[in-house]
């Protein structure tokens, strides 16, 4: 049986349309465009409804890929742009894909990457069970694309989901239907939450009987420990990326995940680093840092207005939304652990980890970790 091998490349970005590093990687042969499954990007917009840096970035990446791929292949890729690089967050791209494993490659299990696009969402379903079910089917399709049968082998699901605009709300009303919420900013949270519950349903973390329209965006006890969802105006469907470990894949890349219980709970992340082979007794030392290929995390202020008993003001700031505060805060905590701030931190963690916390995924190259301290056996079921 021919096995596949994943690739993950992280490139800095000087602006939302700075695709020069991607273009150079294609020219040099480092990046094979025909194998790309997804492009993730951190862009320096506000991360809210009117953040058009996300669509700007998607267009720039697609324009860079069109000379190398047929139109259908360009559109098949998942483009997940997360706006907001508050604090010292570094704008960057993460390109994920796959090739045929080289002959003789025996390191397995290894990172597996799969993608899927759902049909367009009927916007009366946004934030309701219709969206949950649609996403769950999309996650299952992405798992099949990755060749992952057991949900336990999925470590992270990254989703770009739609939001409501005044125009979309009017179109729903014209059909004689209603939307779950009329405030477009609040629709982002409902869409993220319903999408996350769709992940939880697909992975068996919760059952459909536990969810209902009234629970979405309200019942913080319901969540996925492996979902990361980001809402944007630039799409009407869901673009889904599944990352896991599989014995059907080979190569130097491995993934693990952790769940932060609050915004400064870095010890589960440190434990995941150790499982991947890093020493991680303090901040990663410079020679270890190249081995951490990508770090993805969710950030949320939580609903209580307190962090470990102390009051914070993230929810009370009328000038800067709490998601922007949370991105900067969590990025700082994680940067102190890994030694840099080129981290994919997405704000708004409704039903993604416990209230005030969030899931984290770490992708490592065992070839680049000096003297790895562990093997991969525990990363696959």
TrEMBL record:
Pfam families: Amido_AtzD_TrzD. One of its GO terms (molecular function) is cyanuric acid amidohydrolase activity. Responsible for the hydrolysis of cyanuric acid, an intermediate formed during catabolism of s-triazine based compounds in herbicides such as atrazine and polymers such as melamine. Catalyzes the hydrolytic opening of the s-triazine ring of cyanuric acid (2,4,6-trihydroxy-s-triazine) to yield carbon dioxide and carboxybiuret, which spontaneously decarboxylates to biuret. Keywords: Hydrolase, Magnesium, Metal-binding. Belongs to the cyclic amide hydrolase (CyAH) family. Residues 253-381 are annotated as: RU C. One of its GO terms (biological process) is atrazine catabolic process. InterPro entries: AtzD/Barbiturase (IPR014086), AtzD/Barbiturase_RUA (IPR043008), AtzD/Barbiturase_RUB (IPR043006), AtzD/Barbiturase_RUC (IPR043007). Mg(2+) binds at residues 300, 349, 352-354, 357. HAMAP family: Cyc_amidohydrol (MF_01989). The record marks 323 as: Important for substrate specificity. This is Cyanuric acid amidohydrolase. Its EC number is 3.5.2.15. It comes from Kaistia hirudinis. Homotetramer. Gene3D superfamilies: Cyanuric acid hydrolase/Barbituras, RU C, Cyanuric acid hydrolase/Barbiturase, RU A, Cyanuric acid hydrolase/Barbiturase, RU B. The monomer structure is formed from three repeating units (RUs) that share the same structure as one another. The monomer, the active site and substrate all possess threefold rotational symmetry, to the extent that the active site possesses three potential Ser-Lys catalytic dyads. It is possible that any or all of the three active-site serines may act as nucleophile (albeit only one can do so per catalytic cycle). Inhibited by barbituric acid. Pathway: Xenobiotic degradation; atrazine degradation; biuret from cyanurate: step 1/1. Substrate binds at residues 54, 82-83, 192, 230-231, 327, 346-347. The active site is at 160, 230 (nucleophile). It comes from the Bacteria.
